[in-house]
Amino acid sequence: MDWRPLPEILDAEQLVERALHRAAKKRSGASDNAARKLSSLSDNLAATLGAIVDDFPSLDQLHPFDRDIVDLSVGLDELRQSLGGVDWARKQLQKLGGRFTSQAARARGERARQLQKQGYGRLTSVVRQVADRLEFLRDARSVLRKLPAVDPETPLVAMAGAPNVGKSSLVRAISTGRPVVREYPFTTKSVSLGHITARYQTIQVLDTPGLLDRPDAERNNIEKQGLAALEHLAPAIVFVTDASGTSGYPLEVQQALRAELRARYPQAPWLEVQGKFDLEQEAPLGEGALAVSATEGTGVDELKQAVIAMLLPG
Questions:
Q1: What is the DSSP string of 118-165?
Q2: Phi first, then psi: what are they for 275, rounded to 5°?
Q3: Distance CA 25, CA 40 (A)
């Protein structure tokens, strides 16, 4: 799901101010001036709120991976409630706008001006009632637009392993991906995506957050993003081990995680990589594993070709 096209969302006060400004420009005969302004205000507010709701995809039709990532990133229930709240406000604006416009169209003089003032107050109050919902959607949009646009129909390989074993460096080395990492302890913040083009086809390269060898119930939301990718996208897996002793995770802990993932995803195409091979190793190269150093470029081409062969055989 590509969330980048989500347009900017105004906060409640910005939305009200813009609609009032547009309504103020409405000019007509003295007899229907109030009605036209009320109609303009209610129409502009309702249309803007309706567009916000329509711009979001149907949450019920999201791919299971996207649904899990949304839930872990911003909260699926709160997103659903916020969209529902904004849609409620849209309907209220249409109902109130129609009523006040109709009454003002039949009124004259001071009565018409009173109805316009009352209508303005009621209409703008409805928008302000959902100010918190709009603020949540503004924040959610900012988060969602940064999520990777994974195509479930395109070949996919996921880099997996413990934190700080060098997965992000390998994604950068073999693909277009530019994972975002924390300044300390250099662990990936969330799933990110790169691409390899080969044989007139595209391979998606997914960098997953580091996993710890522990029960799912004890894993944090960042770890669960990586599991969501492995669970729902059925990718090939490149398991990265760091035997240099610099990751902060002992080799036996990494091997336990490897055993868990192998048992959990027995059907997944699998490739073993021992990274940071430019550093002194605390264990010999594992059987069938590729020795790779993203820092020096050692084994990078071999890794890229192995990924291509695994996902685009022949």
A1: HHHHHHHHHHHHTHHHHHHHHHHHHHHTTS----TTS-EEEEE-STTS
A2: -90, 180
A3: 9
The series of mean pLDDT values per 10 residues for the chain, 314 residues long, is 94 98 78 88 98 97 94 96 98 97 92 95 98 98 90 94 92 77 42 89 91 90 89 94 94 95 95 95 92 95 96 86
Enter the tokens of residue 26.
């409405």
Spatial strand order of the sheet with 201-207 comes to 192-198, 201-207, 156-160, 236-242, 270-275, 290-291
What is the reported pTM? 0.84
Nearest 5°: the CA angle 289, 296, 193 is 70
Within 13 Å and on the Cβ side, how many CA atoms surround 218?
5
**Domain range 156-311, its CATH number among 3.40.190.10, 3.30.70.260, 3.40.190.100, 3.40.50.300:** 3.40.50.300
